[in-house]
Every structure is written in structure tokens, then in C-alpha cells.
Amino acid sequence: MPLCFIDIATLELEWSGANNPILMVRNVEFTEIKPNKMPIAIYKKMDRYTLHTKQLQKGDIIYLITNGYPDQFSESKNCKLMSKKLKQMLFETSLRFMDEQHKLLETAIHEWMFGHDKEYKQNDDITLMGIKI
Asked: How many domains does the chain have?
């Protein structure tokens, strides 16, 4: 899970991430802040994590995700959902209220994984958090 700090007084975002980006929608524009490509653990090449700072504006939406949502497998489609499809879904729902986004994304992942006759097995955690400024 990406880790971020938002200063409520200044609306400044500080963020570091391991393998998972932070996604942001501002004025119908979608941006991605890239993570460091290393896990949170002992790893063969350990570097310092990059601390990103970004000035937020009222109305911005920040999405923090783990790899679980895009990595969920659909046996009926015989593939993973993938990050590209998740980003498209986030962008398409971003103009809706946050509770509507939650319902749409929950329905989408449920249909993706259960839209077949075979027994479903969740292969990873599913964590996605949206914050509207």
C-alpha cells in the first residue's frame, strides 16, 4: 500500500510507494506518480524510497491502491483485470460522488471475479482507497 501524508492546512501531499503508484484525478485529467520498483522488505538491492511532494487543489481525488485489485483473476476471461483497466475504471467513475464510486468499483470487481460458473478464489488482498480533497 502506498503511504501518504496530506497537510490539511497547505494541501501539500507527501508520498512514497513501493511497486504501487498513487493515482490522481484533477479537472478531468488523470495522472500517475510512479513508485520505487522495490518491495517493502529485505531485498537484493535496497535503495531509499523517493519522497514525492505535490500541491493539491480542492476537488482533487487521490487513489491509493495495492496490486490486489488489478491482479484479481477472472476464470471466465482467463486473465487478470490489470492496472490499465483499473485506471480506466477510476477515471470513468471519478466525476461521481465517492460513495457511488465505491459501489461501482465493488460491483465491477465482483462481476470480474464471480462472472462465471466456477468457484471463485481471491488470490490477493483487495485494497483501494480514494480521498477527495
From this structure: 1
Handedness of CA 113, 115, 116, 119 (dihedral sign): positive
Give the C-alpha separation, 68 to 79, whole Å: 14
Nearest in space to 70 (alpha carbons), one of 132, 23, 117: 23
**Cα–Cα distance, 20 to 35 (Å, whole number):** 6
Amino acid at 73: F
Length of the chain: 133
CATH number at residue 57: 3.60.40.10
In the chain (133 residues long), the average pLDDT of successive 10-residue segments reads 88 90 90 84 78 95 84 70 82 92 88 69 81 95
Give the predicted TM-score (pTM) of the model: 0.82
- Cell numbers for 66, please give them: 495495492
> Which domain covers residue 9, as residue numbers?
3-132
Residue 53, C-alpha cell as written in the block: 511532494
